[in-house]
């Protein structure tokens, strides 16, 4: 069983990999999603991350598809809800005026998510993106109400820059409001600058849990995309194409070398590198097949030597 890590000062404890629920109801149908969730939790992992907006980008979807699949899985019983640290997000456009972090919308969005998820509480409720049109104290005050009501246990931030995250933390401290206990940044072996330039220091200074998304760079770090021909017909082709340059080639070569030394996969090595970074709590990974998931869940057991970490650092610098 994986060793649990504290998530900020929230009192929540999570295994070192989170399951990204963006695939539920999109590239994984309900039946497949149920099997993946069973396998994930049976292996001792517990943090499942979704969002109200998943998967609104798909033709014919309105958002909420992922939460509904997860709620249907909870409804199967056998203690499924108790096995999960449930994380979801709000704030991205959901149609009409449903977006942002105003107190009115925070209250509306949480109730909608609770209905879709078929639960009475969200363990980690995250602002999906900053809302500069709403004062931080108003948003944090609304979150405080949800915590008092028992609808939410802890709050987190996603896609905040370092200055706004620091400002939010200072606002919480000044007004005695709940603080963001987690940060969900875009961070992986191929995307380092945005997080390392400023956010990492704020997270370490304040003891915030960090749960990076796109931990495998939309699949690029698995090594299965090495040319534009490999992208044909792939759902994430547009996201991966930007990595197919000289730097991307260096990164894949370094992953190949380290993976060969361990009899591991490139994905396992990329995740082991990320899990071992200072301050990282649990990278978020997705899977659409049991084989893919089972390989991913071996990553926390992989121990990289200092020279291997140095090789990966240099290739991705």
TrEMBL record:
- Sorted alphabetically, which CDD domains does this protein's record hold? AKR_AKR9C1
SUPFAM superfamilies annotated for this entry? NAD(P)-linked oxidoreductase
Do you know which InterPro entries this protein is assigned to? Answer: AKR_Detox_Biosynth, NAD(P)_OxRdtase_dom_sf, NADP_OxRdtase_dom
Alphabetical keyword list: Oxidoreductase
Ranges of residues in domain NADP-dependent oxidoreductase? 16-315
Q: Show the GO MF annotations.
A: oxidoreductase activity
- Establish whether keyword RNA-binding is in the entry: no
User: What Pfam families does UniProt report for this protein, alphabetically?
Assistant: Aldo_ket_red
Q: Which GO terms describe its cellular component?
A: cytosol
Name assigned to this protein: Aldo/keto reductase
- Annotated source species: Coralloluteibacterium stylophorae
